[in-house]
Amino acid sequence: MRRAVIGGYARPRRYIRQQSTSVRFSRRELSCTRRLRDSEARFCSFNSAINVFQLQLPVTCQRFDHMREKFREYVRARTLQNWWFWIFSIIVEPLFESYNRMVSTASVEDLCRTTLSWLDQYCSQPALRPTHSVSSAHPRPS
Q: Residue 140's closest CA among 88, 87, 92?
C-alpha cells in the first residue's frame, strides 16, 4: 500500500488538521486584536470624559471656603437650638480646619491614607489636650 503525498506531506489528514488549526489561531488572534483596539478606544473615551468632569470640579480653595461656610451655618443653626453646641463648635473648629487642610480627596486611596494620617496627627490624646484647654479660654458669643 502506498500513501499519497500532498504538498510534500506523507499524511494529508495531519496536514489539513495543522492548516485548520493555524487558521483557527489566526482568527482568534485577529478577534483578540480587534477587542483590544475596541477596549483601548473605550478607555480613551472614558479618560476624556473623566478629564471633562474633573475640569468642572471646584478649585481646592473654593472647596475649603465652601466647607467652612457650611460648617458655620450648621453651628449657627444648632446653637440657636441649644447654646451649648457653640462650646462644642469651638473645640471642633480647629480639628475641622486641620482636616480640610490635610485630607486629600483626589482618590479613594489618597482619602484613606490622608485621613488616617490626620487622625494620627490631630486626634490622638496628647494632640487633643491642648485644643481643649485653648478652646475653654474663648469668650461666649453674644
A: 87
